[in-house]
Design brief:
The complex is a heterodimer of chains A (140) and B (762). Chain A has a two-stranded antiparallel sheet with strand order 1-2. In chain A, helix 2 crosses helix 3 and helix 2 packs parallel to helix 6. Chain A starts with 5 loop residues before the first helix and ends with a helix. Helices cover 69% and strands 7% of the residues of chain A. Chain A has six helices and two strands, in the order αααααββα. Chain A has one domain. The longest helix of chain A has 28 residues. Chain A is mainly alpha-helical. Among the domains of chain B are: 262 residues, no CATH class; 27 residues; 145 residues, Four Helix Bundle (Hemerythrin (Met), subunit A), CATH 1.20.120. Chain B is elongated. Chain B has a two-stranded antiparallel ribbon. In chain B, a hairpin with a 4-residue loop joins strand 1 and strand 2. By secondary structure, chain B is mainly alpha-helical. The chains are: A mainly alpha (140), B mainly alpha (762).
């Protein structure tokens, strides 16, 4: 076992939730301002990478609360499913549908938003899967 | 052990084929009246594929056999595989197969027919290989799949040609086009390809060898697929296409030659075998040959004969396969010389087998007798070679009479034997054979009704014109009756003399040594060798080779494109550099790039690459592409993290490559870099007059409700692209996961791999 930096460990503990919130913020603002599901997912992965470096892979895995492969599957499913509602209305697959109502932080709700959430989950899943597998192999 | 609840569910599954049978039976009045019901839906209309179904007399006869025998087979399998842990999945596969077969015979669209045709191949693969823990089963299943699959591919080509020549993929619409289709220059190719499909599926010589092999399947599968349904699919196809492709001399010659050869060969091989299921398999091949042969004669009489024989054969051969399964199930034996005297132990089974054998031997008043009479009548009245064809038919039938004796008399008569683990067959096993054999008797006693209600509409459909088929048990003292008598007498004589003839016959049988089975095996082995050799050449296992090939191919293609384009590239202009930040960033990129190559520390190399990436991201930010910049920052961060994780696994840095190999690497890298730069400059030289960018910018808010055009493109305008990309990403992640979870080989394989030509690996 390597000795861990107390400062890094403590900082990572506080930074993880902050970075996750930031990544979700990026995800939701993506439709109108720079951001989006892809970069949001990457930022969230970076948060877990930092946490993993500071506290070890097992801790990071525990904080993820689920398996990366579940995230991958859920993300892909959500993204693909977001294209289905338009079929019910007789429009082509993946036609964007938007609600009229405006929500406080998120803005309008629409199927592309769910698509983006799917991308976010998948990117987070893919990167954490690779990271955790590599780190476990390395015995970190 | 299986709980009784589970057994109950398997038993109730019989309601599905029973329901289909009842539904089909309800269609009979409409079909007899000459108004076949049809169901049509749109599907892939652009390619001419429609969900068109039609139940005319021909399709209905087959469909009723498929669902009716299917119901009996489900009951039978419940007894045969009682307590088997995979009984349910077996039954579900049987039902899947049943629906695929129903699709084949009811489809009214060439391509739809092909889809169901292939589905029967796939489900039969699963069924033949049901005992997948045995290698013989797996091999037999694969063999059946490959042979019928290759035929299926040929058939697809043939059906496509047929659709093109006839101007429609709807089968019922093609019937009127026979003259123009047969005059088409595509006709010979079309004929050969379609016949290949039919002959492989129906086990015609020289593709017959997969059927005896498929006897590895459990008895319910043999009784269902290999007597009544799947092997008859080819016959169905030929009958279905008789009014479209038939009547042509080439069609007749091919069917008569192949069918006749199969008829004789199958019967000849059947009498030599001792394994009950193989005897039945070869005699099935023989009858399939007879059916092709009769369709080759092609007269209305012959078509009537083919359909009657098909029905009679399905009933008696289904019975005999089920009986063979019962014998094996109860005694553990399948060789006829080890079975005898069983009529006392299982009288009902013996009764069914006896009735089926009499039908097979063609004795009145069973349906087999009627079908044989019509068979002889058809060959005698053939427009050409009537005597030769009749001689072939009589010879084969004499052999088949002896086969009937082998399959159904030998196990039940003679001295009673005691079997160690004998147990009496239950009602589920006995029901199927009794019903089928009983039907063979009942239909033999009702020939007038059968002819008018069933054979007439089927023959009319197969001939493409109205035809009235009359069947009767007694035609008076005709030449056919004399031939029948001769057949039975000759067969009885042969059966009596067979034990003495066996050694001579065995010497005559050269099929095992030079037959098509050997050709198949040699072909398969050759293919595997080719694949192995090609893999050795292409998949060298050296990462540097893969990268070099990829880079050089890409550079070569791009370079060729540039050269074709007249090397029209944007000249470099240094005047555009105004801001100090740009110069600074470019300097960082250059220095970090050189450092990444020159350093002797891996960590340094990774950090330098990261610096290049961050500087590029800064450039994006400077040129107002914040989305790109942000993503690039995140990616670069993660890449460095991943690299660091990988670094743990690598040994210390060492200069392993020779100067020559390094020079080669320099050349590869340089070529790729220069070419890519050239491509970028060439792209810049094209005046940017895209109508796409303004369109996207204008429509982003009104059409997709988002002000961030980049994101709108990703999630909305080109959302399906993104969906594809993230799918690839998920697949790649699974691949990486699998690779990393794989246990590392104890010794590096590099030592066994062939020497690298450049000698760059120590």
């Amino acid at each position: 076992m390597r000795t861990r930096s107390l400062i890094l460990t403590t900082a990572a503990r506080g930074l993880l939730p902050l970075m996750i919130v930031f990544s979700v913020f990026l995800l939701f603002r993506g439709h109108n301002e720079p951001g989006g599901g892809f970069v949001g997912g990457l930022v969230a992965s970076a948060a877990f990478a930092l946490y993993g470096f500071a506290n070890g892979v097992n801790q990071a895995r525990a904080r993820l609360h689920t398996q990366p492969n579940v995230l991958i599957g859920a993300g892909l499913l959500l993204a693909a499913a977001s294209g289905l509602p338009s079929l019910l209305l007789g429009q082509p697959f993946m036609t964007g549908l938007w609600s009229a109502a405006q929500l406080p932080v998120v803005g309008k709700i629409g199927t592309p938003l769910f698509f983006d959430i799917g991308v976010y989950l998948l990117v987070l899943g893919v990167t954490t899967m690779i990271m955790f597998s590599l780190a476990e192999e390395a015995g970190a | 052990m299986v709980s009784s609840r589970k057994d109950n569910l398997s038993r109730w599954l019989v309601l599905i084929p029973l329901g289909v049978t009842a539904w089909l039976a309800g269609l009979l009045p409409a079909i007899s009246a000459g108004a076949p019901p049809a169901w049509r839906w749109e599907w892939v209309s652009l390619l001419g594929i429609r969900l068109d179904f039609m139940a005319d007399g021909l399709g209905w006869l087959f469909a009723l056999l498929i669902s009716g025998i299917g119901a009996l087979v489900v009951v039978y399998a419940n007894g045969y595989l009682a307590g088997h842990p995979q009984l349910r999945s077996f039954l579900v596969t049987i039902l899947l197969f049943m629906f695929a077969m129903l699709g084949v015979v009811l489809a009214d669209n060439l391509l739809l027919l092909f889809i169901f045709w292939e589905l029967t191949s796939v489900t039969s693969y699963l069924l033949i290989g049901f005992k997948h823990e045995y290698e013989a089963s797996r091999k037999a299943a694969l063999q059946a799949l490959l042979v019928t699959g290759l035929g299926g591919v040929a058939m697809l080509a043939g059906l496509t040609l047929l659709g093109l020549a006839g101007g429609s993929f709807q089968i019922s619409a093609l019937v009127g086009q026979a003259a123009s289709i047969q005059a088409s220059p595509l006709y010979p190719a079309m004929l050969v390809l379609v016949l290949l499909g039919a002959f492989t599926k129906s086990a015609q010589f020289p593709f017959h060898f997969w059927l005896p092999g498929a006897m590895e399947a459990p008895a319910p599968v043999s009784a269902y697929l290999h007597s009544a349904t799947m092997v008859k699919a080819g016959i169905y196809l030929l009958a279905r296409f008789t009014p479209i492709l038939g009547g042509h001399p080439a069609w007749q010659a091919a069917l008569l030659a192949v069918g006749g050869a199969t008829l004789l060969l199958g019967a000849f091989l059947a009498i030599q075998k001792l394994d009950l299921k193989r005897i039945l398999a070869y005699s099935t091949i023989s009858i399939l040959g007879a059916l092709v042969f009769l369709l080759g004669v092609g007269t209305p009489l012959a078509v009537k004969g083919a359909l009657t024989l098909l029905l009679a054969h399905s009933l008696y051969k289904g019975t005999l396969f089920m009986v063979a399964g019962i014998l094996e199930h109860s005694t553990g034996e399948r060789e006829i010389d080890k079975l005898s005297g069983l009529r006392r132990q299982m009288p009902l089974v013996a009764l069914a087998a006896g009735a089926a054998a009499l039908s097979m031997a063609g004795l009145p008043p069973l349906l087999g007798f009627i079908s044989k009479e019509v068979f002889y009548e058809a060959t005698r009245h053939s427009p050409g070679w009537a005597n030769a064809l009749t001689a072939v038919a009589v010879t084969a039938n004499i052999l088949l009479v002896a086969v009937a004796g082998l399959a159904a008399l030998a196990p039940f008569f003679g001295a009673r034997k005691e079997f160690k683990d004998y147990h009496a067959p239950g009602w589920q096993l006995t029901l199927g054979p009794l019903m089928l054999a009983g039907l063979g008797l009942a239909l033999g006693l009702l020939p007038g009704w059968l002819g008018a209600a069933v054979i007439t509409p089927a023959a009319s459909a197969a001939l493409g014109s109205a035809y009235t088929a009359k069947l009767a048990l007694w035609h008076g003292l005709t030449p056919e009756l004399a031939l029948s008598g001769l057949t039975v007498a000759g067969g009885a004589l042969l059966y009596w003399g067979l034990p003495r003839l066996r050694p001579t016959l065995a010497r005559l049988d050269v099929g095992e040594r030079i037959g098509p089975q050997r050709v198949y095996e040699a072909g398969l082995a050759g293919m595997l060798r080719l694949a192995a050799g090609q893999t050795r050449v292409i998949q060298s296992g050296y990462l540097e080779n893969y990268i070099s090939i990829i880079l050089l191919t890409a550079a070569g293609l791009a370079g060729y494109g540039l050269w074709q384009n007249g090397l029209h590239i944007q000249p470099l202009e240094w005047g555009g550099l105004e801001m100090i930040e740009e110069i600074l960033l470019l300097a960082i990129i250059a220095v970090a790039g050189v450092a990444a190559v020159a350093t002797r520390s891996r960590l340094m190399a990774v950090a330098s690459l990261g610096a290049v990436g961050f500087a590029v991201a800064m450039l994006y930010a400077l040129f107002s592409a914040p989305d790109l910049a942000m993503t690039q920052f995140a990616i670069e961060t993660l890449v460095v993290i991943l690299f660091v994780l990988v670094l743990y696994r690598l040994p210390g840095f060492a200069s392993l490559s020779s100067p020559r190999a390094r020079l080669r690497d320099w050349l590869v890298a340089g070529t790729a870099g220069v070419t890519i730069t050239g491509v970028l400059l060439a792209i810049l030289a094209i005046p940017l007059e895209s109508r796409l960018a303004p369109w996207l910018a204008e429509n982003s808010v009104p059409l997709a409700g988002g002000r961030n055009v980049v994101n709108v493109i990703l999630v909305d305008f080109r959302g399906i692209d993104t969906l594809g990309e993230i799918t690839v990403l998920a697949v790649a992640a699974i691949g990486i996961f699998a690779l990393l979870q794989m246990p590392a080989p104890r010794k590096p394989e590099i030592q066994e791999a062939p020497e690298d030509p450049e000698g760059s690996d120590a």
